[in-house]
TrEMBL record:
Protein name: Assimilatory nitrate reductase (NADH) alpha subunit apoprotein
Organism domain of life: Bacteria
Alphabetical list of PROSITE patterns matching this protein: 4FE4S_MOW_BIS_MGD, MOLYBDOPTERIN_PROK_1
GO process terms (BP): cellular respiration; nitrate assimilation
Family indicated by similarity: Belongs to the prokaryotic molybdopterin-containing oxidoreductase family. NasA/NapA/NarB subfamily.
A Pfam family this chain is assigned to: Molydop_binding
One GO CC term, this protein: oxidoreductase complex
Species this protein is from: Halomonas caseinilytica
Keywords, sorted A to Z: 4Fe-4S, Iron, Iron-sulfur, Metal-binding, Molybdenum, Nitrate assimilation, Oxidoreductase
Cofactor(s) listed in the protein's UniProt record: Mo-bis(molybdopterin guanine dinucleotide); [4Fe-4S] cluster
Domain 4Fe-4S Mo/W bis-MGD-type: 6-62
CDD domains in the record: MopB_CT_Nitrate-R-NapA-like, MopB_Nitrate-R-NapA-like
Length: 913
């Protein structure tokens, strides 16, 4: 490889809200490797396993490369003309409020800005919202209500400067792994730093916890209102800070005292041990430098705003804000959730953090966006928030919707109903990267968009840090950037003068100018990046990560807000707001008696359209699952790794049982990632009713009510097929359960159903669904076991094992044979003999994958522990597990503890009778 054709480039990761810097190694215009950027202040060179596999998710395979109009591929002019004509016709016949847009935190700030400008400014509809509504809207509403602005006061260094870090509703180890590693290092450097984890589930994050509170789901507000009252009763309020910088403390305390504020009563309501609860109260009240880091577990609630508010109240009451190592810190879920909020992507916002109710804001934005011949017509008030927006589509009030970079048919609650609503909507426009998603089935116009490594612009992470996400590769085929697509539609609608952008730098500069436009510098409009408004193209291209506000007074950015105690409210004082705790709206009953929690898993992202392209990310959790407490499993006759079914308000869910004492009794956990593209019925959103927080509009996604039962299946089977074989249609129809897992060179289908395996003519069934007949097979009709393989021209085309997955060998050896087959290499005689066994002679199965970075399985780790490697460091030295992203370290520690327990209580030898 020549030096001339190889270079490094810097960009930003497209996954969670940490906003890690990435260094990409380029060769001949392609990314061949990635690593963390040691100079980026968000991650200092660290990457999680998803980030380190980014280069494995690229390539043209499966990408959208041409526009589609009514199911047929067309050229761009035809597609853009159709978008403009149909939007204009809908607006003409039904008014501007018949139009809507639904955006995503996957968009770059520049894309977001142009979309908001078109929909609200020139189409005149208020109905533009974003999937950030599903994860961060409650945090936004609470910050604005209390601090006066959607302004996260903290930064990541505060985690390292704190004396106490409280993690509430956040599985940091899996969802924000790089921050978890930063916290781990901080705890090592400062032995006095304490960590408290508040979560109904015992997660890998608890590995760092000095104190764990396994609260009843939905009781978070009660816990923090109780903390506020406890602080007041014991003289732990900062009365000087409250008097100088806040309002409302007495009202907030009076509301908190409406409930019994004894530790015993609070502990009973939260279902935690009173002594542990009082320990937390004492730690929080006694330390000044306290960070409370909270995420979806707090936000995704019908009272999420109040839960966030209860946390903020406690920080204000103790003066624990605006200091190093202190503050209420909401951490975002998507890479540009905050950037979307900055430009007005939420339905209740205008651009540049202005609101409809802010005095003069509507008129100010109108004047700013006006041109010599065009004057925008902004709506007078907020539009429908996400759930309400799709309900309006269902009612026929919204007749045209443009969805960009997200899939509401999977992510929204009552997802089947959302899909049905879109299927009946007269005009559905979708901007998308991938050629095969659930949403495209209901799209009238499909526009191929550029993706990560192709898009060029900026993102803002959870600590208000703006970073460049750079376009390093050309988009495949005819895919185009979102800002360009929107601008071209605007031009065809007659708004070209206002959308005359040649480069994302032009958009960013306009966005920066608006942030400072008539911004008086009195702190009322916190979001201000006007010092970046003079950037030229070169300055934009080389822009280093920087935290807003970025003004003439703070040209290098602002690491921490409200250090002077002056807030973004009319009088400069923060508000403590009364909070009355409420339980979940989705009620448990005799039939649906289990409380459902939903969330992410370590190695996956959203609906897996990106992460499923990296096969090693599919190995940690390869199928949808239901996590169940052992007692609940025993009561219902469920077995670990057996199959079960959940029934909720809008549908059912089928997954593999994972029995875990980490679950509380009567509570379940399912992942959000699997869609109809990857499993028969594993749509978590279908289980949830569409109840929302009345202030934020955020859905109650953590508190479903479901019924749980075993899924009857007379047989299970594993089918592995070459990547070019399509077996889907017959599998969909004829099995009660299926899950599709992409492998490196093949696809694995996990199947289950009826009638009994012994009654089925498997070879005949395979002949019907596959174009290659069985060449080898070995069966045992008595117990229904069968192994078979299809070989064509000496090359392996498919492989089947009928029997429970526990009997599966490791499939890596088999996958290599599929790789050779794809290259036209025939099986050797010895390989053919071992095909049915699917492994080398004497090869041992390495068990479930633990370390995705280095592909280390549980079997190898357990063997190493038994041979004396009884620390994470020793395991890393031998097997490399835990040495890259560190996400598997909690699991490694758990395995070490399990082996120690086993060694302490060995099974005694028993002499045969």
């Amino acid at each position: 490889m020549s030096r001339a054709s190889t270079q490094d480039a810097r960009t930003t990761c497209p996954y969670c809200g940490v906003g890690c810097g990435v260094r990409a190694e380029m060769h001949d215009g392609r990314i061949i490797a990635v690593e963390g950027d040691v100079e980026h202040p968000a991650n200092h060179g660290r990457l999680c396993v998803k980030g380190s596999a980014l280069h494995e998710t690229l390539g043209d395979r499966g990408r959208l490369t041409r526009p589609r109009l009514d199911g047929a591929e067309v050229d761009w002019d035809t597609a853009l003309d159709a978008v403009a004509e149909r939007l204009a016709e809908t607006q003409r016949e039904h008014g501007p409020e018949a139009l809507a847009g639904y955006l995503s935190g996957q968009l770059l700030t520049e894309d977001y800005y142009v979309a908001n400008k078109l929909f609200k400014g020139f189409l005149g509809t208020p109905h533009l919202d974003t999937n950030s509504r599903l994860c961060m809207a409650s945090a936004v509403a609470a910050y604005k209500r209390s601090l006066g602005a959607d302004a996260v006061p903290c930064n990541y260094e505060d985690l390292e400067d704190a004396e106490l870090v409280v993690l509430a509703g956040s599985n940091l180890a899996w969802n924000h792994p790089v921050l978890f590693q930063r916290l781990r290092v901080a705890k090592t450097r400062n032995p006095l730093l304490r960590v408290v984890v508040i979560d109904p589930r015992i997660t890998d994050t608890c590995e760092l916890a000095d104190l764990y509170l396994g609260v009843r789901p939905g009781s978070d507000a009660r816990l923090f209102t109780g903390l506020l009252a406890w602080m007041a009763e014991r003289g732990k309020l900062d009365r000087v800070y409250l008097e100088r910088h806040t309002r409302g403390v007495e009202e907030a305390l009076a509301e908190a005292r409406q409930d019994d504020v004894s530790v015993e009563a609070i502990a009973a309501d939260c279902d935690v041990d009173p002594e542990r609860l009082e320990t937390f109260f004492y730690w929080f009240a006694s330390q000044l430098h306290v960070v409370t880091l909270y995420s979806q577990g707090i936000n995704q609630s019908s009272s999420g705003t109040d839960k966030c508010q209860a946390i903020i109240n406690c920080h204000l009451a103790g003066g624990k804000i605006g200091l190093p190592g202190a503050g209420p810190f909401s951490i975002t879920g998507q890479p540009n959730a905050m950037g979307g909020r900055e430009v007005g992507g939420l339905a209740n916002q205008l651009a540049a953090h202005m609101d409809y109710h802010s005095p003069g804001a509507l008129e100010r934005v109108t004047r700013f966006w006006s041109t010599d011949s065009l004057v925008p017509h902004l709506p007078e008030g907020p539009g429908h928030k996400a759930v309400a927006l799709f309900e309006a589509i269902e009612r026929g009030e919204i007749r045209a919707v443009w969805i960009m970079a997200t899939n509401p048919t999977v992510s929204l609650p009552d997802a089947r109903r959302v899909r049905a609503a879109l299927a009946h909507c007269p005009l559905v426009i979708v901007s998308e990267c991938m050629a095969d998603t659930d949403l495209l089935e209901v799209a009238d116009i499909v526009l191929p968009a550029s993706g990560w490594s192709e898009k060029d612009g900026t993102v803002t992470n959870s600590e208000r840090r703006i970073s460049r996400q750079r376009g390093l590769m050309a988009p495949p085929g005819e895919a185009r950037h979102d800002w360009w697509i929107i601008s071209e539609v605007a031009r065809r609608l007659g708004f070209g003068e206002a959308f005359d952008y040649a480069h994302p730098a032009d958009i960013f500069v306009e966005h920066a100018r608006l942030s400072g436009f008539e911004n008086e510098g009195d702190g009322r409009r916190c979001f201000d990046i006007s010092a970046l408004a003079e950037l030229d193209r070169q300055g934009y291209d080389t822009l280093a990560p920087i935290q807003w506000p970025v003004t003439r007074q703070a040209p290098r950015g602002t690491p921490r807000l409200f250090e002077d105690g002056h807030f973004a409210t009319p009088d400069g004082r923060a508000r403590l707001v009364p909070v009355s705790p409420h339980g979940p709206v989705q009620a448990l009953g005799e039939h649906r008696r289990f409380r459902l929690n939903t969330g992410r898993v370590r190695d996956q992202w959203h609906t897996m359209t990106r992460t499923a392209r990296a096969p090693r990310l599919m190995n940690h959790r390869s199928e949808p699952f239901i996590e169940v407490h052992p007692e609940d499993a025993r009561e219902l006759g469920l077995t670990d790794q057996g199959l079960a079914r959940l029934e909720g308000e809008g549908g059912d869910y089928r997954g593999r049982v994972r029995i875990s004492p980490a679950q509380r009794r009567g509570e379940l956990f399912v992942p959000i990632h699997w869609s109809d593209r990857f499993s028969a019925s594993a749509l978590a959103g279908a289980l949830l009713a569409s109840h929302v927080d009345p202030l934020s509009g955020q859905p109650e996604s953590k508190h479903g009510a479901v019924a749980l039962a075993a899924l009857p299946s007379a047989w299970e089977a594993t089918l592995v097929v070459a990547a070019d074989l399509d077996v889907g249609a017959r599998v969909y129809r004829e099995t009660g359960y299926w899950a599709r897992t992409p492998m490196a060179h093949a696809e694995r289908w996990q199947l289950a159903g009826a009638p009994a395996a012994a009654e089925r003519d498997w070879l005949a069934w395979l002949a019907e669904i596959l174009p290659v007949a069985a060449s080898l097979w070995c069966d045992d009709p008595a117990d229904g076991r069968l192994r078979a393989a299809g070989i064509e021209a000496g090359r392996l085309r498919w492989w089947l094992m009928v029997g429970p997955p526990a009997e599966l060998p490791g499939l890596a050896w088999l996958d290599e044979r599929f790789a050779e087959a794809a290259e036209g290499i025939a099986l050797e005689v010895g390989q053919r003999r071992r095909i049915l066994a699917a492994c080398e002679d004497g090869a041992a199965d390495d068990g479930p994958l633990v370390c995705s970075c280095h592909q280390v399985g549980q079997g190898a780790i357990t063997s190493a522990i038994r041979e004396g490697d009884t620390s994470v460091e020793a395991l890393g030295a031998r097997l490399a597990c835990g040495t890259q992203c560190g996400s598997c370290i909690p699991e490694l520690k758990s395995l070490i503890e399990e082996e120690r327990a086993h060694a302490s209580h060995p099974v005694p030898d028993v002499e045969p009778a």
